[in-house]
Write a sequence for this structure.
């Protein structure tokens, strides 16, 4: 009857209205029966799937675990995966490792040669082998996010598509390995940083440092989600560096202003992180917090103690310049900024340093 009311006013009443209604009703009934049969078949297929099917990773995540073979050293695993699976350039990977590009190229060549000569099989690891490969996979995703958060080359300062991709991969890893706390920590860290994304550049595309960002523009939903992930990871009881880094990011995100940041608690967290990851970059970040707690002179002393390890790192020089400027040593700060400028190709970072050099 509904079909008749839709068609007859436009097409006219058929010669045998009753027969038309019966034929139309029969066709619609057959369509409904077929749809019900297809639906029942799909429900049966879904019911037959194993419980873990909803946590299956996408192909890239499988490839990451495949490339991170324990026969290779850890840095080679990460570098090879970033190149072969993610598609970052050799230069981008080298800057992430804070080493010259030729050094990274040789490392990749040696890793490929070892795979060939040792006959390392190219296969997805069994479930029992995943734990041994988890750390390098986490680092790969973290470095993908870093490249999106601050691009190391090209004409774009930020690459949101890479940052979003890293969040997606971290989320897939959490769903695939729900009982592992470090994927939760990494996903929390990524979300807590993405919460500040809209405030990181001003209307002219200039970089806005954390201390100067409009916190009203931060994504509070992402912050709440990140904090919830940290709390979920804590219930597992195995602390790792990504969980501590996420806690550091959460402390910044929850502070109402830069001045109101709980610097003593941040220093405690960085001390904890340094025990888990005593890398020079962690020590550099800790020195920035020390400068807020104990003053710029103490922070500068800690920064300068890292000169041998971080002399090629532009943020070492930029951090040193900022502390020198706070101490009134403007000429020394100017020289340090000039060194920092030579170490970054990011357009927004270069513009920020150039503005400092012009004052």
């Amino acid at each position: 009857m509904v079909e008749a009311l839709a068609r007859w006013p436009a097409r006219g009443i058929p010669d045998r209205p009753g027969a038309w209604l019966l034929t139309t009703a029969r066709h619609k009934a057959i369509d409904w029966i077929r749809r019900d049969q297809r639906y029942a078949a799909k429900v049966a297929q879904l019911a037959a799937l194993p419980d873990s099917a909803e946590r299956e990773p996408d192909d890239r995540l499988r490839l990451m675990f495949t490339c991170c073979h324990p026969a290779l050293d850890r840095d080679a695993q990460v570098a090879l995966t970033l190149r072969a699976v993610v598609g970052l350039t050799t230069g981008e990977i080298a800057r992430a490792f804070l080493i010259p590009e030729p050094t990274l190229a040789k490392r990749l060549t040696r890793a490929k040669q070892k795979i060939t000569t040792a006959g390392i099989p190219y296969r997805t690891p069994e479930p029992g082998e995943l734990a041994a490969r988890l750390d390098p996979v986490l680092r790969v995703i973290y470095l993908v996010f870093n490249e999106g958060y601050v691009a190391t080359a090209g004409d774009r300062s930020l690459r949101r598509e890479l940052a979003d991709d890293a969040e997606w991969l971290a989320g897939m890893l959490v769903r695939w390995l729900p009982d592992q706390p470090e994927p939760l920590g990494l996903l929390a860290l990524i979300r807590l940083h993405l919460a500040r994304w809209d405030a990181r550049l001003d209307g002219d595309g200039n970089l806005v440092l954390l201390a100067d960002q409009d916190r009203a523009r931060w994504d509070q939903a992402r912050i709440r989600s990140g904090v919830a992930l940290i709390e979920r990871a804590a219930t597992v009881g195995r602390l790792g560096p990504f969980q501590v880094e996420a806690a550091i990011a959460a402390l910044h995100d929850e502070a109402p202003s830069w001045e109101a940041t709980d610097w003593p608690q941040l220093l405690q967290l960085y001390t904890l992180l340094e025990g888990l990851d005593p890398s020079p970059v962690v020590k550099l970040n800790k020195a920035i917090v020390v400068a807020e707690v104990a003053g710029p002179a103490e922070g500068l002393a800690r920064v300068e103690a890292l000169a041998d390890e971080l002399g090629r790192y532009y943020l070492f020089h930029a951090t040193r310049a900022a502390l020198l400027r706070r101490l009134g040593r403007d000429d020394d700060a100017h020289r340090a900024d000039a060194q920092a400028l030579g170490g970054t190709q990011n357009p927004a970072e270069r513009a920020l340093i150039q503005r400092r050099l012009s004052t």
Summary: The radius of gyration is 28 Å. Residues 17-48 form the longest helix (32 residues). The chain has 18 helices and no strands. Residues 42-56 have pLDDT under 50 and may be disordered.
